[in-house]
Specification:
It is built from 9 helices and no strands. With 181 residues, the protein is mostly helical.
Length: 181
């Protein structure tokens, strides 16, 4: 039965392009149907679900980048003058800082799609905005910038957990870090 149905559908699709004229009425009906660029949720429950999922992904990537390329090298003493690999670590930390800011801003936009998340994240908006200038401070060797990143990530994780969207660190690839997304 399935084979017969597939054959009938295949035969029907190949017969459509035979050059037969269609009526103007049929063409107009086809033209008025808008093409969907991207699928979008239809119910408010789906919008909330997708908002939480995107929030968790973006915040997780920000947390992973912060830990992998800012906190971990700082704890190892790689940012100190004379440390082996200092320049490379500072460049990576600067990229990770910009990446983290970018992903946290995306997570903040995602949170606006969920009422609980938006309320939990609203007080952190100024803290996220303050991260904008920290990558340059990291490149200059300012250790307080590391604490600012770490504190903001911890607060975002706490806000997500309180809204039912626990955030886990996800280390982005080097190409994601270089692209900034």
């Amino acid at each position: 039965m399935a084979l017969t149905l597939c054959t009938a559908l295949l035969a029907g699709t190949t017969a459509c392009g035979t050059g037969e004229k269609t009526s103007t009425k049929d063409t107009a009906a086809v033209q008025t149907v808008p093409a969907a660029d991207t699928p979008s949720p239809t119910t408010s429950a789906e919008r909330q679900k997708f908002a939480k999922t995107r929030f968790v992904t973006n915040a997780g990537l920000a947390a992973g980048a912060t830990y992998q390329w800012i906190v971990k090298p700082w704890k190892a003493g790689t940012f100190k003058k004379g440390a082996k690999g200092r320049k490379a670590a500072l460049v990576k930390a600067g990229l990770a800082g910009a990446f983290t800011y970018n992903r946290l801003k995306a997570a903040e936009r995602n949170a606006q799609g969920d009422p609980t998340l938006s309320k939990a994240l609203a007080p952190l908006s100024s803290g996220i905005d303050a991260l904008k200038d920290l990558p340059s401070r990291l490149r200059k060797g300012d250790d307080s910038a590391v604490n600012s990143f770490n504190d903001t990530i911890d607060k975002v994780k706490g806000a997500g957990a309180s809204a039912g969207a626990p955030v886990k660190d996800q280390v982005p690839s080097a190409s994601q870090l270089a692209k900034g997304s």
